[in-house]
Structure formats: structure tokens, C-alpha cells
Amino acid sequence: MGTDNQTCVEEFILLGLSSDWDTQVSLFGLFLMTYLVTVLGNFLIVLLIRLDSRLHTPMYFFLTNLSLVDVSYATSIVPQMLVHFLAGYKVIPYVSCAAQLFLSLGLGGIEFVLLAVMAYDRYVAVCDPLRYSVIMHGGLCTRLAITSWVSGSINSLMQTTITFQLPMCKNKFIDHISCELLAVVRLACVDTSSNEVAIMVSSIVLLMAPFCLVLLSYIKIISTILKIQSTEGRKKAFQTCASHLTVVVLCYGMAIFTYIQPRSSPSVVQEKLISLFYAILMPMLNPMIYSIRNKEVKGAWQKLLGKLSGLTSKLAT
To answer: Fewer Cβ close by (within 10 Å): the C or N end of the chain?
Structure first.
């Protein structure tokens, strides 16, 4: 492609979900409410884990990290989207676009690795319960959490760097809700085969490798559960994994569908819906899934609400 088609891009325009004003206002209200629920739900989960000593375990240490990742991921995309719903000119500066891509891609990678770490934690809890506290000691948990954050950040830095080194065409319209990786790559004026290979490699390292570890962990977990003689024992063992398994299926399923084969990736509309799923639905659902399906969390909620109710009664009298 000739240099006449290239330009020094200083800003991009996000086309978003709709150009109809009434639709945008309705979506603004819906997504604002969803975002507030997401922030509140994850904040309450972190606060609950902090306040209840019974939840000071490796599983809930990793859940705290997951909640922080979810809130950060939603915040990297949703506020910008809300502003654009009420703006006639949906512009995002070049630097802001790069920052948004770096944050969303990095936090997504962190979540995939973190879910694999949580699967390992569940594997040890079910398959080697007597040595659980010895294996999953504080030092190991901290190192695993740091590994999740560092690996996701390094991958995001590499992907963002090579993406924004591409010469961009005069067309600066991004047909997406945010500066998503594939949407930005499509604006390039040159062959992007090397970028697609890089996307494939990073998907294997940060998506398929953790997914395989999760799969292996759950094969061993299920095998162990089936060997338990009592029905009550099998039920209790399954309950320790149910919440995490639900999140794993939702999280990895969409990502594999989107990124493993960039050349045959979903349509633009499907990409937007998938991004909405990760930016809005998953961060809101995670605290609900862990609260509804987890007896320890429900017990902690009841204990906290009981204390608050007692305190309110004392203040009223």
C-alpha cells in the first residue's frame, strides 16, 4: 500500500453500538446501572473477605485478586463508553486508545492466568486436602498472584507496542465499542499477518495453556470426587469447585471463540457483543456466582448482616 494512504493519526472515532440517539440514551442508563452494580458487588466481596477471618484462605485471596481485575477491566472500557453514548463526536485520542488497549488486554490476560491458579488451588483442596495448608502457603499464593499480574501485563505491553507501530490508514473509524486489539489491527495499511501470528502465539500462551491446566486440574478433581464413597462427601467436594467452574466455562469459552483464529474471527457485531460480555456482564456476574453458589460466602454475608442489624437496633434505642 502506498504512503498516500497513510497518515499521522492523532485520534480515533469509535462507532460504538448505535447511532440512534434514543437507543444511546437507553443504553447509557442500562450500562451505567450495570457498571455501578459491578463496582458495588466486587467492592462488597473484597470488603467481606477482608472483614471475615474465616475467609482468609488461599481461595478467597485469589478471589480478591479476581474482583480487583474485574473492576479494573470494566473501568478501562465502560466509563469511556458511557461518555460516548451522550456525545455527538465519539473521539478517543491516540494515546488514550493505546492505554485502553493495554489495560483491557492486560487485565484480560491476568484473569485467564488467575483462573488457572484458582483451578490449581481447587485441585489441591480436593485431591490433597490433608496437605492443603502446607502446599498453598502464603508465599506460594503471593508468587502465583504476582505471576498472573506480571504475565498478563508483559503480553499486553508487547501486543500494544507492535499494534501501534503499524502505519494507520486515513480511515480512523474503529467499528467497535473500545480500542479492541483486532479492531485496531484492521485499520493498518500494511499486511498484518505478523500481528495475527503474534495474537495467535499470545493466545496459546495466555489462553490455551491456562485453559489446558484448568482442564487437567478438573479431570483430576472429577476423578477424585467420583472415588468418594459417600454422596454427601461427593456433594461437598463438588460445591468447593462449582463457582469457579461456572466462571471458567463462561470466561474461557468466549475468549477461545474470539482470539484463537483471528482470520476467521466473528463478525464485527459478534465482536462487540463479546466485548460487552467481558466488560459488563462477567465483572457483574462473578461476585454473584461466588455469593449464590458458595456456602462460606453466604454464611459470611449472614454474619455481617446480623452484626449490622444488631448495631442498627442499638443505635435506634
So the answer is: C
Task: Give start and end residues of each alpha helix (H) in the chain.
Answer: 21-51, 58-85, 94-127, 132-135, 138-164, 181-185, 193-203, 209-227, 231-259, 268-276, 282-292, 295-316
> Grid coordinates in use for 241?
469447585
Spatial CB neighbours of 266, under 8 Å, sequence gap ≥ 6: 257, 258, 274
Report the Cα 74 to chain-centroid distance in Å.
8
Q: What are phi and psi of 17, to 5 degrees?
A: -95, -30
**Residue with cell string 454422596:** 231
- CA 66, 67, 70, 71 dihedral sign is negative
Q: What is the pLDDT of residues 97-149, one digit of tens each?
A: 999 999 999 999 999 999 999 999 989 988 888 999 999 999 999 999 999 99
What mean pLDDT do residues 156-169 have? 89
Backbone angles phi and psi of 13, in degrees to 5? -120, 120
Torsion-angle region of 174 (φ positive above 0: left; ψ -120 to 50: alpha; else: beta) = beta
**One-letter amino acid of 90:** K
Q: Give the C-alpha separation, 195 to 159, whole Å.
A: 8
* In contact, 190 and 165? CB cutoff 8 Å: no
Confidence of residue 313 (pLDDT cuts 50, 70, 90): low
What is the reported pTM?
Answer: 0.85
CA angle 70, 195, 152 (to 5 degrees): 30
Place of cell 498516500: 4
